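Backbone-to-sequence.
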């Protein structure tokens, strides 16, 4: 158990260091992804504190027993203040490999490897309009894909998930998906 706690500490430090980039996104309020297609398609992404925990791969709880779900914005604030959160979080999605191996922190670890690069947005090269469940639009590059959700008929989007796989991966770019090169992100 001590190794799990130490690994959680390490991964939370990665999330804490990525908050600097996320703070800049919060200050801006939104970003607009403009594509280099003939329609100059664009996607407006709204940034809020409540999305950060899931992008990092964490679920936050108010108690150490992890029975009382905490607010995602509260996770962001407490992480910012340096509160030791390792006893109050668990991975958003545990990893189970096809060969039966189980690693509770694997998805969170993978997200940690690409988190800062993804939040800088600068390395994003492509938008994929997909058909992957509740995530319709992804953007990213050869190392990561950020999935976007929408609550208002695709007028604005919010960051829903971060995957440590290429945006061109078959798990993201399904059959009949549309790819659009990114011209710029404002």
């Amino acid at each position: 158990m001590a190794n799990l706690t130490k690994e959680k500490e390490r991964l939370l430090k990665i999330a804490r260091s990525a908050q600097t980039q996320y703070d800049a996104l919060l200050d801006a309020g939104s970003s607009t992804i403009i594509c280099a297609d003939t329609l100059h398609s664009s996607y407006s992404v709204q940034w809020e504190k409540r999305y950060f925990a899931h992008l990092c791969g964490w679920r936050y709880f108010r108690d150490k027993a992890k029975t009382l779900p905490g607010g995602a914005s509260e996770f962001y604030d407490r992480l910012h203040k340096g509160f030791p959160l390792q006893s109050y979080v668990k991975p958003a999605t545990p990893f189970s490999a096809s060969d039966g191996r189980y690693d509770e922190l694997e998805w969170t670890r993978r997200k940690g490897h690409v988190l800062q690069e993804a939040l800088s947005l600068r390395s994003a090269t492509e938008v994929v309009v997909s058909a992957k469940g509740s995530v319709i639009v992804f953007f990213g590059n050869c190392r990561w894909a950020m999935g976007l959700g929408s609550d208002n008929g695709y007028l604005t989007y919010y960051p829903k998930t971060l995957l440590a796989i290429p945006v061109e991966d078959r798990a993201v770019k399904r059959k009949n998906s549309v790819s659009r090169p990114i011209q710029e992100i404002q």
